[in-house]
């Protein structure tokens, strides 16, 4: 492609950190204009993310030594297929969240805090995805934590504050366990560079302990069953754009980091039983999240429990990682499809909630019939969560089942399919009120953008149904470690 | 500076124990201030192990862990400040500086 | 309740197991000199003489930059949580407190400035200096909160963000000039590092005082 040849020498990765950070700083220095900086930043970041993905697709992974100090002395930025796909997903969903927030929050005082913290969160996530240094990753992880905790607390009131506090404590426990792992790795190998570590890690006590601490610490953060208790209140009580950002994007951060570590640093380690244990927890999460989503009575709570279930799918990663080559790529595609669909569902739920003035599922029928665009968005994105054909979710589950079957892991394939049935049941519950007979009611007047954005995201989930091949091609350009 | 290896091992082991004490207190204690302190104790244990690692080599003290400790302290301080203010807000909203027992699920 | 009782009996056992495993792991660490040699080898191009400062402000400048960002974000997060509670007026306002502060605060300011300055060649640096300056500010706040004029809000925001802004500007300029993101032109490394450290120390001191106050300015 001519565009990739043209881009070959352009350094893009640092700009994906600089641009959102500058936006966050400007939004903080001139709070009255925060939303316009936010919008500008979102557009610029999406363009940069697209260019980066094209560049990586065209010429393979880009490793950049910061300040001209190559690792192990300095810090490297790593923009490979995995990183650039996550950055791109964040940018696409991030632009949608930003546009939606224009309508949802407008120029309110709470809106100004939202913009500032949201841009910080975005910069932090990009910095994390692009970092190639285990200690630097710790710092970016803390940035993500502080920004998302403040966003959760933004709703005010006792329940969101308690949810934010629980989330902060759980996250700090996870960060500290991760940091102890970093220290053990540095003590054993004298480097913090992901690639450098990957070339050296062998089976012995310190790296094994590091792998356990880092994995468990990040698992706590990613709310895998039974460590999920903090997630539904935190995600369910936040303002809609925040719920979308947390459920669609932030949950993926710790998943990404676990995947990155096991791909680049620990591929030589095999902890016996780990795949069974993690797969078991993943299956329990799929089951429990699905059952709870059928039992709770409020729209956003259903969506939040659906996230608990979908996090379960992400951690089918472990049984697939060693047994099925390329299995992890199916999981990453699942993460992307879930990110887009979940953002659409949470934003559509926010629109319905604002229109009706509440989100009690049983009483939403009239508003759902009155606001067909939003209900349609809820339906399509829900179909992607279930994994119905023609959606990104279908391709994702297809790939998951395919790689599980290729490795003769029948059990995990059954988990994927059974989880789909549960998801079908709770998505039907979400949509049920719309099909009751009765007149429609548009509820309170709302900015049109709050209906168009969820619909566009829902249509994007259909587009993702055709994006399997390019996404896997991009993921094939991922750095993996080992062979040390 | 050559460090006596036995001294060094005591440092490393104490750092590890401090970390575990922090984990234990974080889970067992219910008052939020104690939980926040517990996280800081975990951090101190980590920094102690890191400084022990820095002194372990033959060729003098390794400066990188010292830089990491400074960065780590600043990050821990920031998180502690946010946690303390959040604790005060929780107390103002609920009257208690502790979290409800793993709460109703909806 | 049974669940919590089970947790209460299990937790000591789990902590003991974790302690055992972790102690084994740290004692298993081989003696090695880490990055001491690469750092020593690059000191002639670092722009400063002290290895820790060279690591913080040059080799791993990106870490330090993000760490300043964490501090700034902490203030924003604290402010987003609401307005601060007023500090109760001090009942103790005797001559001892005033006399002590009158001497202590100038000493703290000089010490803080010295620590920043000396960081390039000896132990010290922006964080140490900023922490001492911040402590002076906190003492001032504790002793006479009512009489102190607070900086106007826009100036506070600018002061807080200054360290991150200057660091980011220098780092981006390095990227544009071809020295890599967060890189310096070799001849300019010392003045740039010193400038960043001075600005960062001021921002850090202000950050610490505002974090201590907890919450954004009232009224």
Topology of helices and strands:
The complex is a heterotrimer of chains A (484), B (106) and C (219).
Chain A: H1 2-7, H2 13-29, H3 34-59, E1 62-65, E2 76-79, H4 81-105, H5 109-130, H6 134-153, H7 158-189, H8 194-200, H9 205-221, H10 231-237, H11 240-264, H12 274-295, H13 299-314, H14 317-323, H15 327-356, H16 365-370, H17 372-386, H18 392-406, H19 410-431, H20 449-464, H21 468-475
Antiparallel strand pairs in A: 1-2
Helix pairs in contact in A: 2-3, 2-5, 3-4, 3-5, 4-5, 4-11, 4-15, 4-20, 4-21, 5-6, 5-11, 6-7, 6-11, 7-9, 7-10, 9-11, 10-11, 10-13, 11-13, 11-15, 12-13, 12-14, 12-19, 13-15, 13-19, 15-17, 15-18, 15-20, 17-19, 17-20, 18-19
Chain B: H1 5-28, H2 32-54, H3 63-94
Helix pairs in contact in B: 1-2, 2-3
Chain C: H1 2-27, H2 36-42, H3 51-59, H4 61-80, H5 95-118, H6 126-143, H7 153-176, H8 189-213
Structural description of this entry:
The complex is a heterotrimer of chains A (484), B (106) and C (219). Helix content of chain A is 75%, strand content 2%. Chain A has 484 residues and is mostly helical. A two-stranded antiparallel ribbon of chain A has the order 1-2. Chain A is globular. Chain B is mostly helical and 106 residues long. The radius of gyration of chain B is 18 Å and the shape is elongated. The N and C termini of chain B lie far apart (59 Å). By secondary structure, chain C is mainly α. Chain C has one domain. Chain C is 70% helix and 0% strand. Chain C contains eight helices and no strands. Chain C is globular. Chain C starts with a helix and ends in a 6-residue tail after the last helix. Chain B: Pfam families: Oxidored_q2. Chain B: It comes from Ectothiorhodospira magna.
What is the count of β-strands of chain A? 2
Order of helices and strands of chain A: HHHEEHHHHHHHHHHHHHHHHHH
Helix vs. strand class of chain A: mainly alpha
Strand order of the largest sheet of chain A: 1-2
Strand content of chain A is: under 5%
Taken from the alpha-carbon principal axes, the silhouette of chain A is globular
Low-confidence stretches of chain A: none
Shape of chain C: globular
Helix content of chain A: over 70%
The domain count of chain C comes to: 1
The main pleated sheet of chain C reads as: none
| Helicity of chain C, as a percent range | 55-70%
* Overall SS class of chain C: mainly alpha
- Taken as a percent bin, the fraction of beta residues of chain C is under 5%
Mean pLDDT of chain A: 92
List the total number of helices of chain A.
21
Low-confidence parts of chain C, pLDDT < 50 over ≥5 residues?
Answer: none
Distance between the termini of chain A: 35 Å
Distance between the termini of chain C: 45 Å
Number of discrete helical segments of chain C: 8
Family (chain B): Belongs to the CPA3 antiporters (TC 2.A.63) subunit C family.
Protein name (chain B): Multicomponent Na+:H+ antiporter subunit C
Main location (chain B): membrane
Keywords (chain B): Cell membrane, Membrane, Transmembrane, Transmembrane helix
């Amino acid at each position: 492609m001519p565009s990739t040849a043209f881009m070959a020498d352009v350094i893009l990765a640092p700009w994906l950190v600089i641009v959102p950070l500058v936006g966050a700083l400007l939004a903080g220095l001139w709070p009255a204009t925060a939303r316009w900086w936010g919008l500008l930043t979102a557009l610029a970041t999406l363009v940069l993310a697209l260019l980066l993905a094209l560049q990586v697709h065209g010429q393979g992974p880009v490793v950049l030594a910061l300040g001209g100090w190559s690792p192990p002395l300095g810090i490297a930025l790593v923009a490979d297929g995995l990183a650039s796909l996550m950055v791109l997903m964040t940018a696409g969903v991030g632009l949608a969240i930003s546009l939606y927030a224009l309508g949802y929050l407008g120029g309110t005082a709470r809106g100004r805090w939202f913009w500032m913290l949201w841009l910080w969160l975005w910069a932090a996530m990009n910095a994390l995805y692009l970092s190639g240094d285990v200690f630097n990753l710790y710092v970016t992880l803390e940035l993500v934590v502080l920004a998302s905790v403040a966003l959760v607390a933004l709703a005010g009131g006792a329940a969101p504050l308690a949810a934010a506090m629980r989330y902060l404590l759980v996250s700090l426990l996870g960060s500290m366990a991760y940091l102890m792992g970093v220290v053990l790795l540095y003590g054993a190998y004298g480097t913090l560079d992901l690639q450098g570590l990957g070339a050296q890690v062998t089976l012995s006590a310190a790296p094994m302990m590091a792998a356990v601490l880092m994995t468990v610490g990040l698992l706590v953060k990613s709310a895998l069953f039974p460590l999920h208790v903090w997630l539904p209140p935190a995600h369910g009580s936040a303002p809609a754009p925040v719920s979308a950002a947390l459920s669609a994007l932030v949950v993926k951060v710790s998943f990404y980091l676990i995947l990155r570590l096991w791909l680049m640093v620990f591929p030589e380690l095999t902890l016996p039983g780990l795949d069974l244990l993690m797969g078991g927890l993943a299956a329990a999460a799929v089951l429990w999240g699905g059952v709870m989503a059928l039992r709770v009575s409020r729209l956003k709570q259903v969506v939040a429990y659906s996230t608990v279930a979908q996090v379960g799918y992400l951690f089918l990663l472990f049984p697939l990682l060693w047994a099925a080559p390329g299995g992890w790529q199916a999981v990453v595609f699942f993460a992307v499809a879930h990110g887009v669909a979940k953002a659409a569902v949470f934003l559509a739920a926010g629109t319905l909630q604002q229109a009706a003035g509440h989100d009690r599922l049983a009483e939403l029928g009239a508003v759902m019939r009155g606001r067909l665009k939003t209900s349609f968005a809820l339906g399509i994105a829900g179909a992607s969560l279930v994994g119905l054909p023609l959606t990104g979710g279908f391709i994702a589950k297809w790939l998951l089942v395919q790689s599980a079957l290729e490795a003769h892991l029948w059990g995990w394939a059954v988990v994927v399919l059974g989880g789909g049935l549960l998801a079908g049941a709770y998505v039907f519950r979400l949509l049920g009120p719309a099909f009751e007979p009765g007149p429609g009611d548009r509820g309170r007047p709302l900015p049109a953008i709050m209906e168009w954005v969820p619909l566009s995201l829902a249509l994007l989930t259909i587009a993702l149904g055709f994006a399997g091949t390019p996404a896997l091609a991009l993921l094939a350009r991922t750095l993996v470690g080992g062979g040390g | 500076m050559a460090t006596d290896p036995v001294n060094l091992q005591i440092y490393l082991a104490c750092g590890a124990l401090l970390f575990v004490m922090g984990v234990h207190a974080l889970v067992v204690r219910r008052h939020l201030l104690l939980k926040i302190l517990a996280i800081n104790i975990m951090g101190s244990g980590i920094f102690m192990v890191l400084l022990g690692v820095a002194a372990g080599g033959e060729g003098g003290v390794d400066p990188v862990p010292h830089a990491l400790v400074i960065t780590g302290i600043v990050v821990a301080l920031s998180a502690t400040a946010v946690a303390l203010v959040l604790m005060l807000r929780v107390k103002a909203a609920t009257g208690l500086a502790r979290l409800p027992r793993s709460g109703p699920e909806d | 309740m049974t669940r919590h009782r089970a947790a209460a009996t299990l937790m000591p056992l789990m902590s003991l197991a974790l302690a055992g495993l972790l102690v084994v792991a740290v004692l298993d660490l081989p003696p090695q000199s880490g990055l001491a040699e690469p750092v020593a080898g690059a000191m002639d191009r670092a722009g400063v003489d002290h290895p820790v400062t060279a690591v913080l402000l040059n080799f791993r400048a990106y870490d330090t930059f993000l760490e300043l960002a964490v501090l700034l974000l902490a203030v924003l997060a604290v402010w987003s949580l609401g307005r601060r509670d007023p500090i109760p007026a001090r009942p103790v306002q005797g001559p001892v407190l005033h006399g002590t502060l009158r001497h202590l605060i100038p000493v703290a300011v000089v010490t803080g400035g010295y620590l920043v300055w000396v960081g390039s060649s000896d132990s010290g640096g922006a964080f140490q200096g900023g922490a001492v300056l911040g402590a002076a500010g906190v003492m001032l706040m504790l002793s006479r909160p009512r009489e102190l004029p607070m900086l106007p809000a826009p100036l506070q925001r600018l002061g807080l963000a200054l360290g991150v802004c200057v660091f980011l500007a220098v780092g981006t300029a390095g990227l544009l000039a071809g020295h890599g993101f967060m890189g310096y032109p070799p001849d300019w490394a010392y003045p740039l590092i010193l400038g960043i450290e001075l600005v960062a120390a001021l921002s850090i001191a202000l950050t610490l005082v505002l974090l201590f106050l907890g919450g954004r300015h009232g009224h």
